[in-house]
Amino acid sequence: MQEIIQYAFFWRTEENVGAINLALADGSGGQVIVDSPAEASLLLDVLRNERPVFYDRANALIMTGLEPVGEGE
């Protein structure tokens, strides 16, 4: 599992599919295919607003770090 340090998003309007390209802390990268605007919105919200965020390549998993229960904005 590696921390995500940068990301880029694209959406193919004709095919109605997109992807989020990830740059990871170890210098490697990953890609997450997104099938809907709702899925893209959810993942981009996590990438924009949470810290730290990690990517587990083996399980194709994006995960936030632990946060206290009831933490407000």
From TrEMBL:
Organism for this UniProt entry: Candidatus Entotheonella gemina
Top-level lineage group: Bacteria
Name of this chain's protein: Uncharacterized protein
